[in-house]
């Protein structure tokens, strides 16, 4: 059994992270009836005897004593992290897992990456080493951050570099929240493009998220639950946006509903690695099957169902509906339309009481309406995990490597160029030690190359399929 | 002369191969503290499936695995053949071979090894190929039979075609024979014959286990034998693999149905044999939907015409066949239909190309049942499909970086493709070999199926 460590950086990263830990505890509490510290729990939590001094001794078997998250919380402002430490999740975190400062990064990637990166490098390495030592077999780092600000974007990608240098064998999955067009941070295009270069070069897989999509999902659910007819029969704790049943009982924060969606994404992604199933899908398999070329590692995610009705009977029609929904625009976590673009690869991670025949039937049904690249016509990777999420009898996470991310990146590039051409706000960045004009030009060039790779693939879409000639052997 | 005796099953868990039903009291197990213990070594790079397997067996109360006899790590191979073959294999070779040695030493007479593995993943396929090589090096006089699970055509693992191509080309060098099970075929059996609505991997594995049992449960392998065969693995090889180039074997059995239907069915031997023979000729995987139009060429015709007719679509030519009969009145069964020279290539006498094993003991609730293990053309098309898809992917270099990361280079891929492209060509070549010797008529070109 392997362990994963979550590194949450910046305000956005920490808020999402907080929701993740809350929901993770809720999920394990629902499954783990006997309070025994088992392998599933150990993937994200240590079991610590807190009666002793110092770090606490790790207890590997037996009853749960005190669970500690395998996490590193980094923020250059104290507000969010302090709140976490004063809230109901405070016992889940060790004070030695934090790196904070007071003044923040001023929405400036250069400050986050160059200034704080340099300043906190040793501290970061030391704390990462310590969390790694507590792991028997560390498989994956999950980095959670936003792209538009200064800390999450700059320091977050700095940490990504450190992870690659210090732990080259460990996978790096990055959950990145991309800014929308109307983002109130003027320099968010600069921050995002500078961060993109780092993601291109140092991440194994990136799960881009857009606030707009999260917001749409929240609105949709709000509509459904308040429309009167369905409202009363929806199971509250099944809502993908809900914190019900978690530790937090205080007033929900405005972004909580949206952040819960991302938290659920991470829980579903790791479910097969934690729980048993008839067809396990480990994290290293996700990277292996979904990344055909090193640069093309941006995965569009979608989650279904968004909620469950209270009645228990689930006819297979509803099961099939779940599969269809996964490919609908309304369930994607970024503003993209994979159905009308080209699939390079697709993974379906199913949880709950679903069998291989249900999976195959739905793949056969959906295949004709999706376009796959010519060299990967059967590009499906599937996983079956027996344990469903809280409040559901089954669920589906679809991860697609699809050219539909291209428009997102192109818009980002446009917004960047609008500012860059006028050299707007550049001086804020170039003031920072270690930051030069070339950082900008390299970043935009990296993004342009990425867009071009997607373009090449799109060009082949729809054209006549010519298979390469087979080898001829002389006898 | 190879030694007879018990085979050791080396069970490699990639995704899901679970061999249940190893309930035989002679060939595969030894008595120990009352409950038979399987002669098996379980290998996986991650622990979940092995611990499930061990506890399920122990819970059955009828048999179990030796709890020491497994090798496990914490992190799987990530569906990466190169990771299984080049990294995990060499790293853990000593530990694994020690376990195998221990099991081998428990045998009075070791006949060989039976490995169970899938082709689509990373451990079963990559490590499986590596371990097979090690077995061959360490036990040069023992038989090695690889049971290989051929993945579903779509939707298991995206890189399954690469993994399959790498596995088959490597196994071909060290293994004595490959016994292939196709997931798609077994899935159909579950759906159409067993009437299972929501098919799980457990159902699929149960069918595979039944098929394996129908071959390896004790039988009399020669006419008039009083005792059960001491060396089923050796007898199998001797019957079915006359030429080292052709070692892919397929399994068919009849009848196959759900327990509910069984109570209302009766079978006659002529009926079973007739269906089984047509399943062979028409390359049908089960007794429903057989194409009765396909016929072997008529034996009275001059040889050249005979060759033409045998190029009729879908006729499945065999190199060798083995029929295994279990149940009531087995002594009186007429298997003449399988001795028809038209079914076979001309290098062996039909007398030598066909063998039959029998036992009056019924198997698994079927009053009468028959299994057919054949060395025939049946896998040419599936193999071509896999090689074609893998080649297509390779031409665009997709995913290749994932393999080079662990030491499998593009040249290694090319070698494997070359080896596998040779196989169907040589098969067709051998079938046309008979043409070289015909004195009548023009020489018939070997056609691909």
UniProtKB/TrEMBL annotation, chain A:
<dbReference type="GO" id="GO:0005813">
    <property type="term" value="C:centrosome"/>
</dbReference>
<comment type="similarity">
    <text>Belongs to the tubulin family.</text>
</comment>
<feature type="domain" description="Tubulin/FtsZ 2-layer sandwich">
    <location>
        <begin position="279"/>
        <end position="414"/>
    </location>
</feature>
<dbReference type="InterPro" id="IPR000217">
    <property type="entry name" value="Tubulin"/>
</dbReference>
<dbReference type="InterPro" id="IPR023123">
    <property type="entry name" value="Tubulin_C"/>
</dbReference>
<dbReference type="InterPro" id="IPR036525">
    <property type="entry name" value="Tubulin/FtsZ_GTPase_sf"/>
</dbReference>
<dbReference type="Pfam" id="PF03953">
    <property type="entry name" value="Tubulin_C"/>
</dbReference>
<dbReference type="GO" id="GO:0005874">
    <property type="term" value="C:microtubule"/>
</dbReference>
<keyword id="KW-0493">Microtubule</keyword>
<comment type="subunit">
    <text>Found in a complex with TEDC1, TEDC2, TUBE1 and TUBD1.</text>
</comment>
<dbReference type="InterPro" id="IPR017975">
    <property type="entry name" value="Tubulin_CS"/>
</dbReference>
<dbReference type="GO" id="GO:0005525">
    <property type="term" value="F:GTP binding"/>
</dbReference>
<dbReference type="InterPro" id="IPR003008">
    <property type="entry name" value="Tubulin_FtsZ_GTPase"/>
</dbReference>
<comment type="subunit">
    <text>Dimer of alpha and beta chains. A typical microtubule is a hollow water-filled tube with an outer diameter of 25 nm and an inner diameter of 15 nM. Alpha-beta heterodimers associate head-to-tail to form protofilaments running lengthwise along the microtubule wall with the beta-tubulin subunit facing the microtubule plus end conferring a structural polarity. Microtubules usually have 13 protofilaments but different protofilament numbers can be found in some organisms and specialized cells.</text>
</comment>
<dbReference type="InterPro" id="IPR018316">
    <property type="entry name" value="Tubulin/FtsZ_2-layer-sand-dom"/>
</dbReference>
<feature type="domain" description="Tubulin/FtsZ GTPase">
    <location>
        <begin position="61"/>
        <end position="277"/>
    </location>
</feature>
<dbReference type="GO" id="GO:0007017">
    <property type="term" value="P:microtubule-based process"/>
</dbReference>
<keyword id="KW-0963">Cytoplasm</keyword>
<dbReference type="InterPro" id="IPR004057">
    <property type="entry name" value="Epsilon_tubulin"/>
</dbReference>
<protein>
    <recommendedName>
        <fullName>Tubulin epsilon chain</fullName>
    </recommendedName>
</protein>
<dbReference type="InterPro" id="IPR008280">
    <property type="entry name" value="Tub_FtsZ_C"/>
</dbReference>
<keyword id="KW-0547">Nucleotide-binding</keyword>
TrEMBL record, chain B:
<dbReference type="GO" id="GO:0005814">
    <property type="term" value="C:centriole"/>
</dbReference>
<protein>
    <recommendedName>
        <fullName>Tubulin delta chain</fullName>
    </recommendedName>
</protein>
<comment type="similarity">
    <text>Belongs to the tubulin family.</text>
</comment>
<dbReference type="InterPro" id="IPR008280">
    <property type="entry name" value="Tub_FtsZ_C"/>
</dbReference>
<dbReference type="GO" id="GO:0007017">
    <property type="term" value="P:microtubule-based process"/>
</dbReference>
<dbReference type="InterPro" id="IPR017975">
    <property type="entry name" value="Tubulin_CS"/>
</dbReference>
<keyword id="KW-0493">Microtubule</keyword>
<dbReference type="InterPro" id="IPR003008">
    <property type="entry name" value="Tubulin_FtsZ_GTPase"/>
</dbReference>
<dbReference type="GO" id="GO:0005874">
    <property type="term" value="C:microtubule"/>
</dbReference>
<feature type="domain" description="Tubulin/FtsZ GTPase">
    <location>
        <begin position="16"/>
        <end position="224"/>
    </location>
</feature>
<dbReference type="GO" id="GO:0005525">
    <property type="term" value="F:GTP binding"/>
</dbReference>
<dbReference type="InterPro" id="IPR002967">
    <property type="entry name" value="Delta_tubulin"/>
</dbReference>
<dbReference type="InterPro" id="IPR036525">
    <property type="entry name" value="Tubulin/FtsZ_GTPase_sf"/>
</dbReference>
<keyword id="KW-0206">Cytoskeleton</keyword>
<keyword id="KW-0966">Cell projection</keyword>
<dbReference type="Pfam" id="PF00091">
    <property type="entry name" value="Tubulin"/>
</dbReference>
<dbReference type="InterPro" id="IPR000217">
    <property type="entry name" value="Tubulin"/>
</dbReference>
<comment type="function">
    <text>Acts as a positive regulator of hedgehog signaling and regulates ciliary function.</text>
</comment>
<keyword id="KW-0547">Nucleotide-binding</keyword>
<dbReference type="GO" id="GO:0030030">
    <property type="term" value="P:cell projection organization"/>
</dbReference>
<keyword id="KW-0970">Cilium biogenesis/degradation</keyword>
<dbReference type="GO" id="GO:0005929">
    <property type="term" value="C:cilium"/>
</dbReference>
């Amino acid at each position: 059994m392997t362990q994963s460590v979550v590194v949450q950086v910046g305000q956005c990263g920490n808020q999402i992270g907080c929701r993740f830990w809350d929901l993770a505890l809720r999920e394990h509490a629902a499954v783990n009836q006997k309070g025994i510290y088992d392998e599933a729990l150990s993937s994200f939590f240590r079991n610590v005897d807190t009666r002793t001094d110092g770090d606490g001794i790790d207890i590997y078997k037996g009853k749960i004593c005190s669970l500690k998250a395998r996490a590193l919380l980094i923020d250059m402002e104290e507000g969010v992290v302090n709140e976490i430490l004063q809230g109901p999740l405070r016992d889940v975190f060790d004070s030695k897992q934090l790196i904070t400062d007071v003044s923040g990064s001023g929405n400036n990637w250069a400050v986050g990456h160059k200034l704080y990166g340099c300043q906190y490098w040793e501290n970061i390495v030391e704390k990462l080493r310590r969390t790694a030592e507590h792991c028997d077999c560390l498989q994956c780092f999950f980095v959670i951050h936003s792209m538009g600000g200064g800390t999450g974007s700059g320091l977050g990608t700095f940490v990504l570099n450190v992870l690659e240098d210090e732990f080259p064998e460990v996978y790096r999955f990055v959950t990145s929240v991309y800014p929308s067009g109307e983002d109130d941070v003027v320099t968010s295009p600069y921050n995002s493009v500078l961060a993109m270069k780092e993601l291109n070069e140092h991440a194994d897989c990136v799960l881009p998220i857009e606030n707009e999509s999260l917001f749409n999902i929240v609105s949709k659910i709000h509509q459904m639950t308040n429309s009167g007819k369905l409202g009363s029969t929806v199971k509250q704790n099944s809502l993908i946006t809900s914190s019900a049943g978690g530790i937090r009982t205080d007033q929900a924060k405005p972004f909580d509903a949206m952040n819960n969606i991302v938290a659920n994404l991470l829980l579903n992604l790791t479910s097969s690695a934690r729980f048993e199933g008839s067809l396990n899908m480990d994290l290293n398999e996700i990277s292996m099957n979904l990344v055909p070329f090193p640069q093309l590692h941006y995965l569009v995610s979608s989650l279904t169902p968004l909620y469950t009705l209270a009645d228990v009977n689930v006819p297979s029609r509803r099961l099939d509906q779940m599969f269809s929904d996964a490919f609908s625009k309304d369930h994607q976590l970024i503003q993209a339309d994979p159905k009308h673009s080209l699939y390079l690869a697709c993974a379906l991670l199913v949880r709950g009481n679903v069998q291989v025949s249900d999976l195959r039937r739905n793949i056969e049904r959906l295949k004709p309406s999706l376009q796959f690249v010519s060299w990967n016509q059967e590009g499906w990777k599937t996983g079956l995990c027996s344990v469903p999420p809280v409040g559901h009898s089954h669920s589906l996470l679809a991860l697609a490597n699809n050219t539909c991310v291209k428009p997102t990146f192109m818009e980002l590039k446009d917004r960047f160029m609008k500012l860059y051409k006028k050299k707007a706000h550049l001086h804020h960045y170039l003031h920072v030690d270690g930051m030069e004009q070339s950082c900008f030009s390299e970043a935009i060039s990296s993004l342009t190359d990425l867009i071009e790779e997607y373009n090449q693939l799109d060009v082949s879409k729809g054209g006549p399929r010519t298979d390469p000639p087979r080898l001829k052997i002389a006898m | 002369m190879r030694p007879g005796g018990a085979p050791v099953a080396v069970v490699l868990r990639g995704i899901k191969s679970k061999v249940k039903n190893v309930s035989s009291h002679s060939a595969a197990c030894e008595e120990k503290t009352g409950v038979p213990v399987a002669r098996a070594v379980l290998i996986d790079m991650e622990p979940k499936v092995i611990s499930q397997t061990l506890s399920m067996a122990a819970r059955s109360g009828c048999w179990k695995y030796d709890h020491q006899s497994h090798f496990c790590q914490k992190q799987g191979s990530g569906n990466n053949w190169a990771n299984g073959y080049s990294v995990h294999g060499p790293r853990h070779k000593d530990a694994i071979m020690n376990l195998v040695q221990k099991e081998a030493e428990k045998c009075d007479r070791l006949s060989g090894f039976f490995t169970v593995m899938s082709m689509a993943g990373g451990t079963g396929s990559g490590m499986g190929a590596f371990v097979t090589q090690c077995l061959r090096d360490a036990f040069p006089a023992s038989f090695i039979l690889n049971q290989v699970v051929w993945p579903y055509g779509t939707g298991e693992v995206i890189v399954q075609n690469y993994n399959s191509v790498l596995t088959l080309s490597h196994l071909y060098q060290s293994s004595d024979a490959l016994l292939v099970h196709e997931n798609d075929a077994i899935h159909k059996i579950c759906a159409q014959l067993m009437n299972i609505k929501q098919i799980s991997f457990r159902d699929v594995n149960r069918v595979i286990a039944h098929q394996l049992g129908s071959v390896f449960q004790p039988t009399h392998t020669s006419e008039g034998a009083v005792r059960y065969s001491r060396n089923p693995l050796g007898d199998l090889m001797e019957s079915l693999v006359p030429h080292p180039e052709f070692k892919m074997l397929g399994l068919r059995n009849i009848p196959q149905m759900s327990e509910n239907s069984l109570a209302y069915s009766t079978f006659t031997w002529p009926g079973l044999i007739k269906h089984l023979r047509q399943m062979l000729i028409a390359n049908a995987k089960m007794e429903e939907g057989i194409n009765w139009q396909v016929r072997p060429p008529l034996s009275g015709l001059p040889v050249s015409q005979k060759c033409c007719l045998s190029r009729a679509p879908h006729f499945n030519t065999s190199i060798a066949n083995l029929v295994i009969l279990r149940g009531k009145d087995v002594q009186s069964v007429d298997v003449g239909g399988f001795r028809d020279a038209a079914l076979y290539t001309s290098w062996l006498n039909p007398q030598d190309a066909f063998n039959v094993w029998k036992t009056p003991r019924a198997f698994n609730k079927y009053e009468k049942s028959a299994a057919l293990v054949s060395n025939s053309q049946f896998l040419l098309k599936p193999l071509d499909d896999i090689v074609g898809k893998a080649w297509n992917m390779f031409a665009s270099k997709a995913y290749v970086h994932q393999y080079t990361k662990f030491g499998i280079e593009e040249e290694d891929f090319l070698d494997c493709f070359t080896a596998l492209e040779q196989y169907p060509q040589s098969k067709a070549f051998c079938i046309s070999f008979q043409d070289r010797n015909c004195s009548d008529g023009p020489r018939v070109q070997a056609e691909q199926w």
